[in-house]
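The data are quoted verbatim for reference:
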Amino acid sequence: MSDQLWMREALKLARQASKKGEVPVGAIIVREDIVLARSHNLREQSKDATAHAEVLAIRTASGYVGDWRLTNTTLYVTLEPCPMCAGAIVLARIPRVVYAASDPKSGAAGTLFNLLQDERLNHQVDVVKGVLVGESVALLQSFFHERRN
């Protein structure tokens, strides 16, 4: 499948998060066109600051494959990973991340920091940004507009 098709799946998850009052971020981890994990933000519902879509997807995928190393996978996420999520991605050895919207306040995949490609770390990640950015930005803006009103 193409990056756009998988990102559409991640956007569906982001919409589910929004309906639950969570910041609309969805993540999906794929290996050879097989979905290993799907998740969305659950911080509010779980009362857990680490319950970001990426971290939850990494936990699920690791359980599914029976290994903490998620080699030969791609993580699709609707918002640029934060430093915590970027750290988890590096530690899980995910080789490729595709994200939609950049995050000017906490993006750690090139916007504010670039943890995913920092050569001082023992693993670097190929990053593709901007896939279906318009849909992701519209979803985020709509969510925060509704929260303010």
Remarks:
- The two ends are 39 Å apart (CA to CA).
